[in-house]
Amino acid sequence: MSWVTKTLKSTLGRKLIMALTGLFLILFLTGHVSGNLLLFKGDGGEAFNIYAKFMTTNPAVKILSYLTYISVIGHIIYSILLTQQNKSARPVGYAESKASTNSTWSSRNMGVLGTIILIFLVVHLQGFWAKMHWGEVPMVTYGEEEYKNLFLIVSEAFKQEWLVALYVVSMGFLGFHLSHGFASAFQTLGLNHKKYSPAIKAIGQAYCIVVPVLFASMPLYIYFTS
Amino acid sequence: MILDSKIPAGPLAEKWTKHKFNSKLVNPANKRKYDVIVVGTGLAGASAAASLAELGYNVKAFCFQDSPRRAHSIAAQGGINAAKNYQNDGDSIFRLFYDTIKGGDYRAREANVYRLAEVSVKIIDQCVAQGVPFAREYGGLLANRSFGGAQVSRTFYARGQTGQQLLLGAYSALSRQVANGKVKLYPRTEMMDVVVVDGHARGIVTRNLITGAVETHAAHAVLLCTGGYGNVFFLSTNAMGSNVTAAWRAHKRGAYFANPCFTQIHPTCIPVSGDHQSKLTLMSESLRNDGRVWVPATKEIAEKLRKGQIKANDIKEEDRDYFLERKYPSFGNLVPRDVASRNAKYVCDEGRGVNETGEAVFLDFRDAIKRDSRKIIEQKYGNLFDMYKQITGEDPYEVPMMIYPAVHYTMGGLWVDYNLMTTVPGLYALGEANFSDHGANRLGASALMQGLADGYFVIPYTIGDYLAQIPPKKVDENHPEFAKAKEEVQNRIKTLLSIKGSKTVDYFHKKLGKIMWNECGMARTAEGLKKAKAEIKALKAEFWKDVKVLGANEELNQSLEKAHRVADFLELGELMVDDALNRNESCGGHFREEYQTPDGEALRDDENFAYVAAWKYVGEDQEEELHKEPLVFENVKLTQRSYK
Amino acid sequence: MKLTLKIWRQKNASDKGGFVTYPVDHVSKDMSFLEMLDVLNEQLTEKGEDPVHFDHDCREGICGMCSLYINGKPHGPLQTTTCQLHMRSFNDGETITIEPWRAKAFPVVKDLVVNRSAFDRIIQAGGYVSVNTGGVPDANEIPIPKTVADLAMDAAQCIGCGACVAACKNASAMLFTSAKISQLALLPQGQVERKTRAEKMVAQMDAEGFGACTNTGACEAECPKGISITNIARMNREYFSAVVSSENV
Question: Looking at residue A1, what is its pLDDT?
C-alpha cells in the first residue's frame, strides 16, 4: 500500500476528506446563494438567466462545478465508510444513554441530516439542474443573445405549495447540518486555536442561519409574489 | 545466618562508585541469554523492567491490574526530592542524606541512604528526558518547592500529580521495551509464589486473574516491586488491590522480613464516615501550613457537636483547644507526621473527637481566610478544597475541615542487602517492598525518589554482579520445584474454595484491620500487642474454617483474589505485632507508650535497638526467628528529635 | 436511601449477558458509588450469589481503573471518576442503570469489567521518548516555556480510563490518543520522533477498531480530567503534516 492510499484509508485521512469536501461545499453554497440572490431583482429574471448561462458556459466555472460534483460524491462515500466504521466500533449499544448532556443533537445526527439533505438534493437536481442540462427549456432573448429561461422554470416550480414546503424544511435541516459541520471541519483540519476558534465558531453559527434562510426565502418569495 | 549487608568499605561518598566498579559485569552478548522476572509495575517495577530490557536482558513483567499504568505509585501527590540545589539554597547530597537519616529516626542504613541521595539527581534528568512535564518557572527552568518541613526547596513536582507523571514516564519506557519485544507483559496476573531451586530464586507461580490458569515462569532472577502492605489495616490510603502476597510468599520461601512494625500514619486524611468505608483519601500535608488543628476543649461540648446540637462555628474561641499549637509552640501545626497523628488520636481517645464516629479533629481555615482573604486560600488549596467537598459534601470555606490520621506507607519490608538482594539469592526487592531507606519514618517526597532510584539506577548495576556468576543457560522449568510450587498454589485455591463457610472475606479483613489499628497503629503497648496477637491467631483460625469464597477458580473471581491476599495479611499482622512487641523503644512511626519522655515524646533506645529487626519464617504456626543487623552510624550523630 | 439497581451481568466474554435488578437498602449519602456496590456484593455473597464484578483500584480518582456507565453517562452524573461519585448525587427511590463501557475495542471480560489493553498497545506504538536510562542531559539543559509545560501537563493528566471512548457515539479513542501525541509534540523532548509517533499511534488506534471522531465534544464533556479536544486538533495537524513530510513510505 502506498502512503497515499494508506493515509486515505486511515480514520484521520477519511476525516480529512470529509472536512475538505465539506468546506468546498460550503464555498459552493456561498457562491450558489449569492448568484441566486438575483431572483430577488424583480427584472423578470433577466439577470438570473444571464448569470445562469455564464455559470454553465464559463470554463473556469466548469472546473469548479466538476469539483463540486466530486465533493458531493466524496462527502457521501466517505460518510458511508465512516458511518460503517463507527457502527462497527460499538456492536453492542447502551440500554440507556444521556448523550444530550454532553453534545448537541446536530453533532450526533450528521448522518441523518446528511441523508435528508441528499434526498432533497435528488429532488432539487432533478427539478432544475437536470432540466437545464438535458430537458426542454423555453428560450428567451435579451439584446442579441438567446438564453434558457430558467427563471420561468423556477417561478413555475415554486407555485407548487408542496415543493416550497419541501425546500423550506430541507433548508432547516441544512442549517442544522452546517451548524455542526462548519466549525467541525476546521477542528478536523487541526485548526483549533484559542485566538481564532471563537471567530470560526461565530462565523459558523452565523453562516448556518444566514445561508439556509436566504435559500429558503427564494421559493417563499416567488410563491408569494407570483 | 549472619545478615551480610554487603555495604562496601571506604568513605561514605565513595562507596557506591567503588561498588559499581567492583561489581562483575555481564558481557553484552550474553545479556540476552538471561531472563529476569519483574513483579509489579509501579515506579520501581516499571523503571527496573524498562532499564533491564534496555540493557538487553529478557524481561517478563507482571501486574495484577489491567494495565501497568494503574500501579498505586500513580496516586502520589506531592513530589519527588532530589539534591539538585537548583535553588542555590544550600542543598547537597549530604544534606539530603542527613535529612533522610534523621527523618527516619536513625533506623536506616547510612550507605543505602547516601546512595539514594546521590542518584536522586539523575532521576530528575531521566524523567525530564522522558517528557515528564514537571512544573517550571517563567524562565523555562524547573520549579521546586519545600515539602514536609524541609529547610531547602528540593522537591520537584507536576501539579498535585507527581506520582502519576513519574509513573507514566516509567510506563512509557516500559511500553517502548514491550514494543521492542524485550519485555513480555502479563497484566491481570497475580504472583502466587516464588520458586526456589537449590537455594536460588528461579521463577514464580502466577494465577491468570481472567482464566484462573495457574502457571510457572522461570528466570535467572526475580525482582519483587510489589509495594507496601498498608492494607493490613483494611482502611488505608493504599489502593484496594495493594497487598503483601508477593512479599509474604517470598518471606515464606526464605526471604527475611525487616522492621514490619514501621508504619507511617499520615495526619491529614478525610475521616471515616461509616462502616461502609472502603478506603481513606489523603489530603495534602501542605494544608497544615494555613489550617489550624483543634477540638473542643471539653468532652461535653464535643458530645453536643457529635449529636448535631451545635455547629463547629458556634463554638467560642475559649472553648477551642488548638492542641498542637498549645503543646508545640515553636512548630505548632507543622510538627512531623507522626507527632501530629498521635496527638489527634489522644484528643479523640479523650472523647473530644468531632464527627459522628468521634474520630476526627478540625482543620480550620477561618483565621487564614480572615487574614489572607478567601481568594488567596483558594489559589493555594482550591483543588484540595474541591476534592474535600466532593467527598464529604461540606464546604471547607464555610465550615472547618475534618481530618483524621490514616495508614499511608510502610517503611518495613523484605530485608535486602546493599545490592537490593533478599536473603534468597537471585530474589530482589525494590521500592516500598523493601525496608532499606526510610528507617522508622519516611520523609515527604522520598517514596517516589526511592522507587525510581532502585529501578533506574541501582538494580541495573547490582543484578549484573549476580547474573555474571551464574551460567547463561536457560532455567529448566521442568525442575520438580516448579511443579511442587504450582501444586501448592493449586491446593491453596482448592482449600479456599472448599471451605464454603459463612463469613465473607471482607468480614475478616475489616476485623483484622480493626485489631491492627487499635493495637498496632499510632500508639502501641505491650499489653495491647499481646492481646492483638491472640486475637489475630483466633481470627486466622476462624478464617480457614469459616470463610466464604464463592465461584470457581477458572473465571474472574474477585472474592478469591481477595481471599488469598487477606490470608497473607493475617499472617503478616501477627509478625507486625511480634516486631512491635520486640522493639522496646519508640522511634519514628513506631510509638510504644511505655517508652516516652516525661513530656510525651518518642524515646529512642539507641543502645539496645539501633538495629534492623529481620524476621525469618521457620514454619507454619511457629514463632518467627529474629535476626539483627546492627546499624552503624559513622557520619551522623544520633540526636533526639524535638519540636517544642 | 433505598435504591433499585439495574446491573449488566455477563458471566464471561462469550456469554450473552443481560440486566439483573437488585434492590439495595440502607444506602448512606456519604457512601461512594463503589462502596454502595461493595454493600450489594456483601449481601449477594452472604446469600450465596456471585458478586458483581467491576474494576476499581485506587479509589481516589487517579489510577483510571474504575469505569461504569451509570444512568446513561460514563462515570455517572458528575464529571469525575466513578470512585469519586457519592450517593448524595442520587435520590431516594431512584433506579440506577449500570452498564459496562461499550466498544468493540473494549470487550467485556465479566459483568462490568472490560479489557482496555488496546490503550496499552496504542502507547506501545509510540507514546514515548526513546531514551535509555542514563546518559541524558541535565534536566535544566532543556528550558521549556512555562506555558508549553502547562499545556503538556494538561494533556498528560489523562488517566486512561476510557470514558472518552465510552461517551463517544462512535467509540472513538481520539481523545486518549491525542492527549499523548499532544504532550510529546509540545515538549522539545518529543520532537525527534514527532512524525513517526503520530503516524504509528494513529495506525494502532485504527487497528484496534475504534471509531472515528465526529467532533461532538462528548469525550471532553465527560473526561474526568477535563482533557480538551484541542488535543484532537493538534493530533490531526501532527498526523497530516507527518504523512506528507515523513520519510515513511
Answer: 66
* Distance of residue C116 Cα from the nearest chain A Cα, in angstroms: 14
Residue of A nearest to C78 (CA): A101
We report the CATH number of the domain holding residue A138 as: 1.20.1300.10
CA distance readout (Å), A212 to A34, A116, A203, B485, B639: 12, 14, 14, 75, 83
Beta strands in chain C (DSSP E): 3-9, 18-24, 69-70, 73-74, 95-99, 108-110, 113-114
Q: Which of B424, B405, B402, B403 is nearest to B415 (CA)?
A: B424
- d(CA C139, CA B81) in angstroms, rounded, equals 14
Nearest CA in chain A to C245: A3
A141 residue type, one letter? T
- pTM for this one? 0.97
CB contact under 8 A, A90 and C211: yes
Give per-residue pLDDT as tens, B307-328.
999 999 999 999 999 999 999 9
Q: Name the active-site residue from B115, B320, B337, B604.
A: B337
C116-245: which CATH number, 3.40.630.30, 2.160.20.10, 1.25.40.10, 1.10.1060.10? 1.10.1060.10
Contact C206 A91 (CB under 8 A): no
Tally of structural domains, chain A: 1
Q: Region of B182 please: left (phi>0), alpha (psi -120 to 50) or beta.
A: alpha
Do A86 and C216 count as a contact with CB atoms less than 8 A apart?
Answer: no
Burial of B535 (0-12, 13-18, 19+ CB in 10 A): buried
User: For testing the chain C interface, which of A84, A103, A197 should be mutated: the one with the most C CBs within 10 Å?
Assistant: A103
Q: Is B154 a catalytic residue?
A: no
Contact yes or no for C174/C182 (Cβ under 8 A): no
Positions in chain B whose pLDDT score sits under 70: none
In whole angstroms, how far apart are CA B309 and each of B322, B356, B393?
22, 12, 19
- C182-191 tens-digit pLDDT: 999 999 999 9
User: Taking chain C, what is the end-to-end CA distance rounded to the nearest angstrom?
Assistant: 62
The answer to whether ipTM exceeds 0.85 is yes
Is A93 domain-assigned? no
Domain C3-110 class in CATH: alpha beta
Per-residue pLDDT of chain A (226 residues; tens, 9 = 90+): 689 999 999 999 999 999 999 999 999 999 999 999 999 998 989 999 999 999 989 999 999 999 999 999 999 999 999 999 999 999 999 999 999 999 999 999 999 999 999 999 999 999 999 988 888 899 999 999 999 999 999 999 999 999 999 999 999 999 999 999 999 999 999 999 999 999 999 999 999 999 999 999 999 999 999 7
How far is Cα A147 from Cα B415, in angstroms, rounded to an integer? 98
Residue pair B155/B81 in contact (Cβ under 8 Å)? The answer is yes
User: Which of residues 149 through 188 in chain C touch B, CB cutoff 8 A?
Assistant: 149-150, 152-153, 156-157, 159-160, 183-184, 187
Task: Tell me what the mean pLDDT of segment C119-140 comes to.
Answer: 97
- Is C9 touching B (CB cutoff 8 A)? no
Give C246's pLDDT tier (boundaries 50, 70, 90): very high
